[in-house]
Amino acid sequence: MWRVGLIVCSGLLLAACTITPRPTVPVEALLTPAALPTPAMDGESAPMLPPSVENGAVIYAEKCAACHGESGAGDGPQAATIRAQGRQVPSLIDPARARVAKPSEWHAIITVGRLQNLMPGFASSLTGQQRWDVLAYVWALGTPPQRLEAGRKLYAAQCASCHGPNGELAFGNPPRAFNDMPFLASYSLQDLADLMQEGEAHAKVRLSGEERHLVADVVRSFGYLYADPAALREARLRGDGTLTLRVVNGTPGGRGTPIGATVVLRAYDTRGEVFTRTAQLDVSGWVTFTALPRRSDYFYQAELDYAKGRFYAPPLQFSTAATATTVLSDMLPIFETTEDESNIRIAEMHFFVQEVRPRQLTVVEIYQFDNLSDRAYIGKPSADGRRRTLRLSKPAGAQNLRFDGLGLGQRFFEDGDVIFDTDAVVPGRGAMRIIMLYEVPYRDRLPFERKVFYPVDRWDVIIPELEGVQEQLRAEGLVDRGRQVLANGVFYLFAADRPAQAGETLRFTFAGRLAPADRPGSDARALGFGLIALGVAIGLAYLVLMRVRALREHYRDLGEVRQTLLRQIARLDDAFAQGKLREADYHEQRQRLKAELREIWE
């Protein structure tokens, strides 16, 4: 009887299934294992959402453009430095490379980096989706709208009937839709082009090799949110901001303003120059620039060439607040010029020991120049036409010499043991500030000499208090002004007891037995701001330089630190190749720089 009951109950249950409003389940579905999440849909092997070119453009500008260039051609401002070390900055839009690269492979490179080529990984600073977004922007860089439009016409004529207008129909063996994320992540453009020649379904497809690649670009575009990179860049370079400047000749009895002269406006962000605009000076001495983006990370600075000198307006920045004005106004002062340097003097000169290591000191020299005449000093031209304005002696034994802002080969250049500035020195006190950095080898004592070419009113040496060393570093031969306690740290001040004459050699000796390892209190980035604060306390007006290129403080802005470290590695390699460094010192310094680069890059 229990068997009969079971059969009756089963019959009732089956009957109930036939009258349920829900559809019946096909038998083959019961024989198919349930779908489980796979690595292909974890956001790493394939995107979870269609990648966005617009989102990727922002990330690319911040993380990639410095090396790979704005257009992806491998010509960014840091590319030359990296290539000088024998490394590669590949073009991301070269068809020979881009067509054979699988998206998942490039995503992996963005994730883990290629440190052998000085490319960091971005796994910790970008999500998986953000890495797909920036990769989508790279695809778009190699796919201008006109190319995509040509491919769409071919696709509509020969492919859409089977695959759907937007690649949404699953087709083939196995069936697959072109907007399927794992499918697109695993196929290169070359793979997609080759598929168009496979199977009976493609027997009637008539496409040349280049036409198949045009269609492959279209097929890939079904899997991401396309936008024209050129249009995105243009949009970033336009806004509702207006900047007006009045050009004023500051020399009494000067020739006035050069009506009709071209004024150049440069926009900078923390990575360097973004774009340039030009406009002409009108009859009233005003110049106006319109349609400027009011971005919080953009600084603007205008410049005008006059009387063989180049003159700059103060750097300006728009506020992005909703109530902020869209118009900025200021002055661009110009002066008559002179080649006579008799009115140039150094008001203050400071030697900061910015970083202390067992075998090396990092020294920062800060010069504040006065021009006591009413004309801008432009110096004399060199053989190549560059002006020779302010002169600095090259520090003996200095390694990795560099400047805040534009450095050697740009604003400054060497001629023998002398370094020349090329910028005009406008009239006034504190008219020019130059900041020079370098490393010198150190072993317990280091006699230090610096020749100056102009009268020096005041100069001193500032050293951080060091913990865990056998002897505190000091500057012998100068007046010990004692221990200075500031909110930013503790420092020792050593000052000269008299001014220096033009042509004189400043002399003192670094002394102190240092421990064989770094100690708290000796780190450059931890002490840099304290050193600057001390400079202010003793009368140094450590303001930003008149040019926005020097506004980017090396040790506050990580983008600049990255560039500085890359330059340091390149110059270190050069010095070792020229036999200027012992092998042990070279390897120690290079390992330290590479470690710092890895630490801060992301």
What is the beta-strand fraction? Answer: 25-35%
**Lateral arrangement of strands in the main beta sheet:** 15-18-10-9-20-23-22
The CATH first-level class of the largest domain comes to: Mainly Beta
Reported for the largest beta sheet, the result is: 7 strands, mixed
CATH topology-level fold name of the largest domain: Immunoglobulin-like
Distance N to C terminus? 76 Å
Helix content: 25-40%
Estimated structural class: alpha+beta
Q: Spans with pLDDT under 50 lasting ≥5 residues? A: 6-40, 517-558
Q: What overall form do the CA principal axes indicate?
A: globular
Q: Tell me the count of domains.
A: 4
Give the helix tally: 17
Radius of gyration equals 32 Å
What is the residue-mean pLDDT, rounded to a whole number? 83
Number of strands: 24
Question: Architecture of the largest domain, according to CATH?
Answer: Sandwich
Give a description of the structure:
The structure is a single chain. The chain is α+β, with helices and mostly antiparallel strands and 602 residues long. The protein folds into four domains: 197 residues, no CATH class; 98 residues, Immunoglobulin-like (Sandwich); 209 residues, Sandwich (Immunoglobulin-like); 46 residues. It has 17 helices and 24 strands. It has a seven-stranded mixed β-sheet with strand order 15-18-10-9-20-23-22. Strands 3-2-5-6 form a four-stranded antiparallel β-sheet, with no helix packed on it. Strand 22 and strand 23 form a beta hairpin. About 13% of the residues have low confidence.
